[in-house]
Amino acid sequence: MARPETIVVTGASGGIGRALVEALLERFDEARIVATYHKASDLPGHERISWRQIDLRDAQSIEGWSSEFDRVDWILNAAGYLHGEYGGPEKSIRKFDTEFLIENIRVNTLPTLLLARHFGAALKQSPAPLLASISARVGSIEDNRLGGWYSYRVSKAALNMALKTLSIEWKHSHPRGCVVALHPGTNDTALSKPFQANVDPEHLFDPAYTASMFVELLSALGPEDSGQFRAWNGDVIPW
């Protein structure tokens, strides 16, 4: 795949998002990186990083922002929601809450669809466009053996379907492009902090490690890989 010149990283103030920005700066020494945050402080500065505050749940904001770009080579969406003001993952259907499900979908599913819609024209100008979103293995229907976590699983399964469907459409409209879902494993971030107690230390990753693995993986992907669900180590995950 051609080296990207303009890379958009959304949700870049989170643990994996920040690590992706750092890994991209190191890997592509001439690339311009546009990184977004929702609420953050102490954002890393660099002459090749442009920070932009964007609410990825807001269609008008993304549409207006996308009009500033003539060409984008890569879009990496690292935004995610697992717990917060609306609650946390449900162990039982008795704990299911409508507002929690809606917020999971608004953050985990909707942004990728909005980014694809409004940045499609700019990506089409790239010789090798790439759109990748951080998903999760728990969004795999075939791999679901433990149950629970209804809202998070539903939102990630919906994200996976969105990416798969987009990859089919873009085989015609963006034939040089690649659309993929990415599974990062469990990383030592604020997102996973409340759920790390039962994680084997060998399977709790440093976000810097995961980000470097993702950049290596994405650099090797091409149109023939579009529509896949990949883990950080390159393994293909069933939908």
Residue fraction in strands: 15-25%
**Strand order, sheet with most strands:** 3-2-1-4-5-6-9
Choose one word for the global shape.
globular
Oligomer: single chain
First-to-last CA distance: 25 Å
CATH class: Alpha Beta
Q: In which range does the helix fraction lie?
A: 25-40%
Number of strands: 9
- Low-pLDDT ranges: none
Mean pLDDT, to the nearest integer, reads 91
Structural class: alpha/beta
CATH topology: Rossmann fold
The H-and-E topology, N to C, reads as EHEEHEHHEHEEEHE
Summed up, what is this model?
This protein has 239 residues and is of the alpha/beta class.
Draw up the topology in text.
Layout: E1 6-10, H1 15-27, E2 32-37, E3 49-53, H2 59-66, E4 74-77, H3 98-108, H4 110-124, E5 130-134, H5 150-173, E6 178-183, E7 186-187, E8 204-205, H6 207-220, E9 228-231
Parallel strand pairs: 1-2, 1-4, 2-3, 4-5, 5-6, 6-9, 7-8
